[in-house]
Amino acid sequence: MTGTTIRARRARPIEAHANTSAGDTTSLPIAAVALAAPAGYRPADMQPSDIRVALFSGNYNYIRDGANQALNLLVGHLMARGVTVKVFSPTTDTPAFPPTGDLVKVPAFAFPGGREEYKLGRGLPLTTRAALRAYRPNLVHVSAPEFLGHRAITWARAQNIPVVASLHTRFETYFRYYGIGFLEPLVRAILKRFYQRADLVLVPTPSVAALIRDWGVTTPVSDWGRGVDHRRFSPAARSPEWRRSLGIGDDELAIGFLGRLVLEKGLDVFADVAAALRARGVPHRVLVVGEGPARDWFASRVPEAAFAGFQHGDDLGRAVASMDVLFNPSLTETWGQVTSEAMAAGVPVVAARATGAMDLVEDGRTGFLVPPRDVAAYADAIARIVADPALRAAMSAAGHVRAAGWSWDGANEAVLQAYMAVMQDRPSASRR
Is residue 219 within 8 Å of 200, Cβ to Cβ? Predict the structure, then answer.
């Protein structure tokens, strides 16, 4: 029923992982960079239990993707630290996974244009406003720049409640994949307005911070990096038996794709590069891990590929570790969760030199960064790794070591500290 609260599992504390030691933060993983608190901020002035967060999401759990999994892990961490959280999001009767924390259903409609699996919240209807008044949050966190997020900021401003916005996806790039790229300047202007209205913007990487500065956003920025489940994503999870079950021989090198099969993940570029590798006679097999609405189209473009379908949990860790190279040509990510998980599993990465990869991959050491959409350069990079076992082994080891510093606990604790810093600047909101 509209406005009802779905009560799901209580979160357990997330296990901490090793973080990189202090030093020059320009070379540290994002999750290890300390939050720069505002002048005069005293952590002792506020406790996590003082915070009541209303988190607004466009897709909290009805489709599984990197953004909503990061939000669920964040809510779990906040709850474990004593923060009160209520999530407002569109829902479905068949969600991809149970939500962490209390989830309030927001009325929504299906996204037009053949992407009905996504939903758009209808702003803040009376039932949602009533739920907000009853909850009495003293902090609003918006995670998507759609109708619900815009209306949530307007509501928070009227209540004198501080607003934190987090940036998860390069939405402005989506339109070019569906033949309406001329809308991109307009979308950037809308995004600029959205983030400009917040008190603080959480970004996963320095390249994303630079991106929104180029848009003209002057709102203060803090780091919210991402973590990796190092128990699950490990070189030890590699399985020759699983590869054989898909028809991949022990002597074949698997070039992997990992993610939802949608056009904005760069499937066209991936298919063109696979064709270029075939034309050059580079020995390889394409291994596709994931499902999505573009599956049939993609399968027609890479007929030699082994499709493993949707993988989850330890099965996903096994699938990633069983790749020999991860090829990620996507331009839409802000962190690139699949990239960080592949590196943790000891898999070299070939990726676009763009946000989502350029802050993670060390070019020439843990993989290669290639100019976006340069099919020949992508093929050169993959062919070089395929032909050189020593280079492949060195990149595998270096990637695994670099990823060891990416901790969910460290990343999510930075968000909590950012919350307290913002509320310290807005004492009237803290007393609510």
Answer: yes
